[in-house]
Write a structure and sequence with these properties.
7 helices; two-stranded antiparallel ribbon; disordered C terminus; 266 residues; alpha+beta; nine-stranded mixed sheet
């Protein structure tokens, strides 16, 4: 007797729109993007002044690196919002099942440090790279520490973001691999910020724009863990592991429970 072929249920409009938002962000259609220090050896940048002069000029966020396909997902847990990836990570990490704990490790949770900058095309700071400027840049923790040291050195350097008396930073990257790459930040002489970029920015607003919504973290979680979403109409997601097709289905993780979705801001 022929078996019926299982038909995969079509994603709801909400999930399709959430997936499209991720796609558009990766293709450069978003208002705020993140630049990465990876292509060159030396960068000259200028940190932008902020609306709130008392706010930190770098914001720390939590991210998950989910491999080459999904890459980094910036968690809404960074600002105290629910995150399906964080929920799955914590559940897998606490599991008594070794495979679950290994999966938690593969989610590569880490801290990221974001700051708004302008990029220069040249090492002397004469020509601004308009295409890359006005965005967030992800910097290493070591660079953040060096920026703090410069900021605290009021006698010689002081406020990096000051429009009149601030200064550019040269960031040098050495090494290519994950474990041998290091960064060094050196200050340039004090100069006024280019006129076009004097207007203060809202770092919190920029960071919030690159954080995933809860629905986006649900989609990223399901893709990473190999889950299928069903029963979308009642707002709940029943997850089935791809492993259920094999004889190992009895080893399903306890972490694969029904998850409640909050309303998205999409």
């Amino acid at each position: 007797m022929a078996t019926k072929k299982k038909v995969k249920k079509k994603l709801s409009l909400r999930d399709r729109m959430a997936a499209k938002k991720i796609e558009l962000a990766k293709s450069g259609e978003g208002n705020f993007l993140i630049e990465y220090l990876k292509d060159e050896t030396t960068y000259r940048v200028r940190l932008l002044p902020q609306i709130d002069e008392e706010a930190d000029f770098v914001q720390e966020v939590t991210s998950f690196y989910l491999g080459q396909e999904l890459k980094s997902v910036y968690s809404p847990a960074s600002i105290g919002e629910p995150c399906a990836l964080m929920e799955a990570y914590q559940e897998l990490k606490k599991s008594k099942n070794e495979e679950d704990r290994e999966m938690a490790e593969k989610m590569s949770i880490r801290k990221a440090f974001l700051t708004p900058v302008i990029f220069y095309k040249d090492g002397k700071g004469k020509k601004v790279d308009e295409e890359r400027s006005g965005k967030l840049v992800k910097i290493a923790k070591s660079v953040y520490n060096q920026l703090i040291d410069l900021y605290l050195d009021e006698d010689e350097w002081g406020d990096i973001t000051d429009p009149k008396n601030g200064y550019d930073i040269k960031i040098t990257r050495t090494g290519k691999g994950k474990n041998d790459t290091s960064y060094d930040a050196k200050p340039c002489k004090n100069t006024p910020i280019p006129k076009k970029w004097k207007k203060p920015v809202d770092l919190s607003e920029m960071v919030n724009a690159v954080l995933a919504t809860y629905d986006e973290t649900v989609i990223a979680r399901d893709k990473f863990l190999g889950l299928d979403a069903e029963d979308e109409d009642d707002g709940k997601s029943k997850k089935k592991s791809k492993k259920s097709k094999s004889k190992s289905s009895s080893k399903k993780s306890k972490s694969k429970k029904k998850s409640k979705k909050r309303k998205s801001d999409i």
